[in-house]
Write a structure and sequence with these properties.
With 286 residues, the protein is α/β, with parallel strands linked by helices. The chain has twelve helices and twelve strands. Strands 3, 4, 5, 6, 7, 10, 11 and 12 form an eight-stranded mixed sheet that branches. It has a two-stranded antiparallel ribbon with strand order 1-2. It has a two-stranded parallel sheet with strand order 8-9. Helix 9 links the parallel strand 8 and strand 9.
């Protein structure tokens, strides 16, 4: 069965906002029976009851509110993706050259590019997606104007500031023994367990290693080294082993119980997402 379509997700979000299937249908320019049928199809697709229908109107169920929240995020990212794709099509004539690490490029940068386009419609943005270490190299070499990184640093010669936060999570498939644990992992258990990891230089890898060092537990023991979050996620689903990954990259898999998050005691897996610029460039523009 195919997944939910974007129009159905927009309809669900509007029902949540307006409190009525009829008003939501009107906002989308469709008939109310068509809207009701579309919502029923969506409920079958996700296997959940999403809308309580009463004479006084329609309200989302608790599950419906959760799905609507995710749907709102998906729609925001799709809008950002469209804007980002437009910027990529004009990369050769870019006025603003940007490099971003993979997590940022997938989950944040498209919306930020959209905001740039809203404020400065004639600004063209060229985006290069690499790991955090390479982002810093490109900024330092002057090959891009602005970089976005997720590693803890330090970043000598670069100016940075906090723009967002992210959290990493340990995940395993539902059949893994850790999925049934009642007590959190220790830092030493995590460090001693071979993990599916990103390549050296990635922000996720450096964040995990820094967190384990702060906990006095040593370093990551690699089982597999892979070049993208999606490759790591798919390897875990296939049963290769546990991984530590951005929670942004496993929202659907955790909700669908394809992956199970595992608590870890004594290890801080939060991280700050930062833009970076050359200090020389910052001084010239000041």
């Amino acid at each position: 069965m195919t997944g939910p379509d974007l129009d159905s997700l927009r309809l669900l979000v509007l029902v949540d906002d307006l409190g009525s299937i009829g008003q939501a249908a009107g906002a989308l320019g469709i008939a109310q029976p068509s809207a009701s049928k579309r919502l029923s199809t969506l409920e079958r697709q996700v296997g959940l009851s999403l809308v309580d229908r009463t004479r006084r109107g329609s309200a989302l169920t608790p599950d419906g509110r959760v799905i609507a929240g995710w749907a709102h995020r998906v729609l925001t990212e799709v809008d950002g993706l469209r804007t980002g794709a437009e910027a990529l099509r004009t990369q050769r004539g870019a006025k603003l050259r940007v490099a971003a690490s993979m997590t940022l490029a997938e989950h944040f940068v498209p919306a930020w590019i959209g905001e740039v386009k809203r404020i400065e419609p004639d600004t063209y943005v060229g985006l290069e997606v690499v790991n955090s270490e390479h982002v810093a190299d490109l900024v330092t070499a002057g090959r891009v104007d602005l970089g976005f990184v997720e590693s803890p640093g330090p970043w000598p010669g670069l100016s940075t500031r906090r723009v967002a936060t992210d959290r990493l999570v340990v995940v395993v498939p539902a059949g893994h023994p850790w999925a049934r644990r009642r007590r959190p992992l220790t830092a030493f258990e995590l460090a001693a367990t071979p993990l599916v990891v990103r390549e050296p230089g990635s922000g996720t890898r450096e964040t995990v290693e820094a967190a384990l060092r702060r906990a006095g537990a040593g370093v990551v023991t690699p089982l597999l080294e892979l070049g993208s979050a999606s490759a790591v996620r798919n390897a875990v689903i296939a049963g290769a082993g546990p991984a530590v990954i951005s929670e942004l990259d496993v929202v659907r898999e955790v909700a669908g119980r394809r992956l199970v998050p595992v608590a870890v005691a004594g290890v801080e897996l939060g991280r700050v997402l930062r833009p970076t610029r050359s200090r020389r460039a910052s001084a010239r523009s000041a």
